[in-house]
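Check out a protein:
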Amino acid sequence: MPNLNRILQLAVIASLAVGCMLSACTMGPNYVKPEVQAAVAFKEQQGWKLAAPQDTLPKGKWWELFGDSELNVLVAQVEVSNLNIKAVEAQYAQARALLQQARADYYPTVTGGLSFSRNKYATNNTNATNYDPTINSTYRVNADASWEPDIWGRVKRSVEAGDTSLQASAADIEAAKLSAQAVLAQDYYMLRIADARKQLFDDTVAAYEKSLKLTQNQYAVGVVARADVVAAETQLKSAKAQAVDVGIQRAQMEHAIAVLIGKAPADFSIPVATTAFVTTPPAIPLGIPSALLERRPDVAAAERRAASANAKIGVTEAAYYPALTLSATLGFQSRSFSQWLDYPSRFWTLGSALAQTIFDGGLRKAKTAQAVAVYDETATNYRQSVLIAFQEVEDNLVALGILDEEAQLQADAVKSARESAQIATNQYKAGIVTYINVVNAQAIALNNERAALNVQSSQLSAVVLLIKSLGGGWDSSELSKLDHSNPTKSAAK
């Protein structure tokens, strides 16, 4: 018996040595980042080009570039209270738990047991060998351990897949934050533009009331016809109706902001601006390269998912090879409670097993083919996300360039329309033209004022979207580090 025990021990030691030597084998292809086609510079903006790859590119509080203290307060609440971000954070916790599960396979599994049983043979069981009519008790305590060495790298690839999935989830959190912050900034400025429209209509209503009073006075003395009074009344009521209509959009933007910061619309409000809303889009520094592959969290998440899918190919390929399992049991067993844990009551076993699937009807082959197809899909999605990222930058660069020119032209149009309306009013007072001329001139002026606000709204939205498409913005400390040979200027210029 001692010789047999020694042989078993040597067999287990040999199995462990073989397992450790073979653990260097890893199935599946090593990951290589999918190639993407990218231009060296942007089409729609001279001076914008791709940066050399970097591990990290710091991103500051980009919304502070707008210089709006109220916006700063609102955006700060997004990261803390937004429910969509919390949901993505819960997904990150799930990915972290799955990674911990994968790492657990590196270690042996140890279980323990404690049992007690009593038995008595049937009294008519006279043919039983060593028949014992008494009641017997059995006391047993044992610990079992089993371990499957990672010979073919299955566990290593599983951990690799879990780790890259965790990194993708972390990028998802940043993408969710950036998206919510950008949406809030857009909604906030749409709300402020609505306030500006309301102020414009309020001023217009006050001016139209004066015009109506003028026509009523002139009608009373027989200078003008009743038609002029009716035209002035119609114009005034139309302006009042449009002023009321602005409230719909403002209220909806206010509700949207409330949800973005995790509050019920009934519990949140933003005071109406009491001063004229005047803001210009912030400058986007050309000295900071638009390294989309390093800055955009959604692109990073797509690339990490491709890496995870690549690792899972190795997991499926490892199933083609035999699995080695090492096991051991140690414990005490006795029929007497008093002798239960005595040295002679000890028992132990050591063993090893090698198992190989011989036939599975093509199951392993199908799973491997599926894993390869999943990788192809994620790699394609990564390439697509890169193309979309470049498209979004180009779209907003060209939008800002055109909107900048449009804003200049619209500002000139507003100035001319205001002058035309003043001339028509003076001519009407002098009796040179009818009130229809005044109505037309004032309508043109109002439409141009509204158009100017629409352009301003589009500019602010395009800047926010450009910053988002670049993966975030920059704080003052980053701006101070810019190369002075590459001047900071607006991307719209």
User: Anything to note?
Assistant: Residues 50-57, 479-493 have pLDDT under 50 and may be disordered.
